[in-house]
Amino acid sequence: MCRPTPAPSGSVRQAARGLGLLLLAGGCAHRVAGGPPRVPVAVAQVGRAPVPFDLVTTGSAEPLQTVAVQSQVTGVLSAVTFAEGAEVTAGEPLFQIDPRPFQAALDQARATLVRDSAQAVSADADAKRWADLVRLDYVTQSDADAKAAAAASANAVVSADSAALASAALNLQWATIRAPISGRTGRLLLRLGNLVRANMDQLVVINQIHPILVQFALPERFLPQIQQYRRSPQLSVLVTGSDADTSVREGALTFLDNAVDSTTGTVLLKAEFANRDNALWPGQFLNVRLRLYVEPQALVVPAEAVMTGQAGTYVFVVNPDGTARSQPVTIERTAGQTAVVAQGLEVGDQVVTDGQSRLVAGAHVEIKGSGAPPGQGDR
């Protein structure tokens, strides 16, 4: 059976109120002691490092040389001595055209030369004898002149035969088609058994890719800088296959066009790469950086520390007391993940690189990670 609880006496009520006040006072003192909440951030130090000055664009690879192999004689293709896509060296046999017609022509030219040479020898002897007879008045001068003319004609025929023999030998030589340059072959354009027409049918295309060229264009406003720094040792050109490709190939600038393209306002440049590993391929699109110079002691911060607001670019700097302040900065340029600072920061300043979106000026921060001063930008 439940009984009604008696009302607390006055002393009990006073004690309860006193306990509540103590608890309230204790709670307020905990919040004060804990202070304002701290924002977790990552920071990096402002430092000095060598930073390259690169002109960034896109380009494409092209062979150093390209040759479309053709036959210089007409005949039936009887042999192919290489595999499609193989590397070949200059002078290596690639195709064989049926040599029998050319061998027969060579034999005929050789025999004709022998015959006409014998006739020329006989004509020379006759001319000499008739010249002697003229001095003895046994024959007329006109007869002697006729014999001399016949001898000269016979010798001219021998000269023509010699040229025909050389031509026949050359045609036989051309029946074996050799690589004019070293490089990589493409697909076969004519196969065994086809009739090859002289100087008309392409057989295969050879691209020289060791070394290889990369061509690219830059706006004409950079032309004075390119000309200025090109006088120093060869400028470096760095290429990557794509944004996700971390492997960088380095070559040297070898060509600057002699005119600006008036339709695009750009100037064409080319760089040469050794390409020993075949990483660059003709026709491949590439990200290109022309390195004009390296600034040895640039004031740098990580690029992710720089924010952009209505008043311009700024960073959050961590003060010695653990609070953050917004610091306007002037960024001269960026190189990869590094920003070069022109004004607004000093060496040793700590800038926030992660967590800026939760910060306001004067906010207390808790450093969760820090990094060394940024180094040189990406190669």
How do the helices and strands line up, and which of them pair or pack?
Elements (H helix, E strand, L loop, with lengths): L9 H25 L4 E7 L1 E24 L4 E6 L6 E2 L4 E5 L2 H36 L5 H34 L1 E3 L4 E3 L9 E2 L5 E18 L3 H8 L5 E5 L8 E8 L9 E8 L11 E18 L4 E3 L2 E7 L5 E5 L1 E6 L2 E6 L6 E5 L10 E7 L8
Parallel strand pairs: 1-20
Antiparallel strand pairs: 1-19, 2-9, 2-13, 3-5, 3-8, 4-7, 5-6, 7-9, 9-12, 10-11, 10-13, 11-12, 13-18, 14-15, 15-16, 17-18
Helix pairs in contact: 2-3
Strand order, main sheet: write it out.
2-9-12-11-10-13
**CATH architecture designation of the largest domain:** Beta Barrel
- Report the CATH superfamily of the largest domain: Efflux pump adaptor protein, beta barrel domain
**Over the alpha carbons, how many angstroms does the gyration radius reach?**
45 Å
CATH topology of the largest domain: Elongation Factor Tu (Ef-tu), domain 3
Structural class: alpha+beta
**Anisotropy-based shape:** elongated
Unreliable stretches = 1-33
CATH class of the largest domain: Mainly Beta
How far is the first residue's CA from the last residue's CA? 88 Å
User: How many helices?
Assistant: 4
How would you portray this structure in words?
The protein has 379 residues and is of the alpha+beta class. It has four domains: 39-49 and 297-371, conserved putative lor/sdh protein from methanococcus maripaludis s2 fold (Beta Barrel); 55-63 and 207-296, Beta Barrel (Elongation Factor Tu (Ef-tu), domain 3); 69-97 and 177-205, OB fold (Dihydrolipoamide Acetyltransferase, E2P), CATH 2.40.50; 100-174. It has four helices and 20 strands. It has helices spanning 10-34, 100-135, 141-174, 223-230, and strands spanning 39-45, 47-70, 75-80, 87-88, 93-97, 176-178, 183-185, 195-196, 202-219, 236-240, 249-256, 266-273, 285-302, 307-309, 312-318, 324-328, 330-335, 338-343, 350-354, 365-371. The strands form four sheets. It has a six-stranded antiparallel barrel with strand order 2-9-12-11-10-13. A four-stranded antiparallel beta sheet has the order 6-5-3-8. Helix 2 packs antiparallel against helix 3.
